[in-house]
Amino acid sequence: MIRTHSGGCLCGAVRYETTGALREVVYCHCSQCRRQTGLYFAATDVADANMEISGGDSLAWFAASEHAKRGFCRTCGSVLFWKHNTKDYISILAGSFDQPSGLTPGFHIFVADKGDYYSIDDGLPQFERSTPAVKVAGD
Length: 139
Ligand SMILES: [Zn+2]
Ligand SMILES: [Zn+2]
Prior knowledge:
The chain has 139 residues and is mainly β. It is built from 1 helix and 10 strands; from the N terminus they run βββαβββββββ. 5% of the residues lie in helices and 37% in strands. One zinc ion binds next to helix 1.
């Protein structure tokens, strides 16, 4: 049986459905993720082929760097996606999934850039910057 997951933004204008396994959640503490989310970025990912988005008219993209763009709902502002420009997968914010999501915790990246107003004490692995351990679902 193929497992599907669904989710969407706060106002409901943007919805999505994924098929198959979801990667463990990676927590990114880089300055871009910190500014966009107000805390840090917690996301899983799936191959583009396993992702269906509806309400795409309400989806806006911001190119925070020349490598990647960040998708959010233009009506309610919910952060939803992160997409590398040349890769065939999409990162999805863990908080946007309908519950129960079945997601599992992975590890922290870019902890060198984390905010000074919280501590990371959940016992999960921490990496100063990125790591090859960041895999795409199914890898
Ligand atoms: Zn919305
Ligand atoms: Zn980040």
